[in-house]
Amino acid sequence: MANENIDAKNSLPAKLAPEKFFLGRFGMTEGALERILGTALGRKADHADLYFEYRNAEALSLEDSIVNRTSKSVSQGVGVRVCAEDRTGYAYSEEVTVDRMRIAAEAARAIANDTNAAAPAVRVGQPVARHELYELESTPLEVPLEERARILGEIDKVARAFDPRVKNVMASFAAERKVIMVVTADGRIAADVQPLCRLNVTVIADDGRNRQIGSSGGGGRVEWRFFLENDLWREHTIKAARQAITNLDAIDAPAGEMVVVLGSGWPGILLHEAIGHGLEGDFNRKGVSAFAGRIGQRVASELCTVVDDGTMPNRRGSINIDDEGTPTSRTVLIEKGILRGYLQDRMNARLMKMEPTGNGRRESFAHAPMPRMTNTFMLAGESDPADIIRSVPRGLYAVSFGGGQVDITNGKFVFSASEAYLIEDGKVTRPVKGATLIGNGPDVLTRVAMVGNDLALDPGVGTCGKDGQSVPVGVGLPTIRIDGITVGGTSA
Hints:
By secondary structure, the protein is of the alpha+beta class. It folds into two domains: 245 residues, PmbA/TldD superfamily (PmbA/TldD fold); 237 residues, no CATH class. It contains eleven helices and 27 strands. Strands 3, 4, 5, 6, 7, 8 and 9 form a seven-stranded mixed beta sheet that branches. A six-stranded mixed beta sheet has the order 14-13-12-17-26-23. A hairpin with a 2-residue loop joins β24 and β25. The chain is globular and about 70 Å long. The N terminus is likely disordered.
């Protein structure tokens, strides 16, 4: 391997040559990969693959007006997977050597209950075409730590100057660059270099009577100048401070069933949790999702079209290839209320006799892939957002959400609103606190009565958890009116 392909500062490819990076770094040959995959596959297995990963990450955070924590980590490893019918064997090693990979391959095959010792011929070398969604000249990892710390200090000053009731500011910035390579038993080699960064701002306000929190942030697969252009860091700071101060004057949220208007952008997290997980292939293959067996049926208002799109440039949830080496795609899940498909990885697609959609994702080399979302959102409609508000005599306008949970088997969800307002006589009036939305995902979609023309995606902060694994995702939503959600609050 020629040294000019390695960025000495971060031990990562300076340009996109990840296949050569791995083969050179670990002294691998295509012949060695073929023998390991042959060991893993066996006659009774349906699929086997190798997943290589090298990750370099840095983070720093500010609290009490000082940058009080920094961290840097480098990790590498390889995972070996064997699929036999609906069984999966997975083993991994942080030591990337031929011997360790052979042992992992034997372990994975044993887990998949394939004890046949015969190793079929494997021929590696077919490259997989991938998207070019984030071809960056540099990443925030190349920016001096002092510059990143300076911006955190400016965030602290701007937030405290917003209002004297701001008592504390917490800000953090994290960045990573991950190199992956997937080699499959059918001969394909797919590789990618994946940058990612995220800025978070949290503001605590206190007026002597109560304390409230506001938060904002953003990021994506972007360069450092993304945060500097148009003072984006300042925008997030002001938004977090304004939310905290606004909530100081909030009244208790009403309780009961009412019309709810969801604002554009981040409120799409409700769509992600209440609807998106139920459309992942594994839940539907096992028949545990509320959407199982319903392709071609009406599951939502005809105003609703929901897609998952991993091909959007520079977005947090976008990837050139998924973690099985399949190029990502734009998948229509619900079209004008009709269920059209599911999100698929290779194994579930094979078992369901469908095509993979490029949604096989994993947290790291220590985890097997599973169907996961990328950027999931509802398409824009035709209504003016102002007209949607004016159409509501009394209701709730939810602008931002905090935590939530959903039961995949029946679609029931509970979400807490971190910023919400009353709608009275067609006007947004008083801020409210303590509002939770309680409902059923498939049922809520049928109650969508108006869809705005203002589709917005979240600013780039989403992280999705499933079966103990976390991956970056994006969400989006236009302003929508839902006729009838139970609002949990403290006033009748």
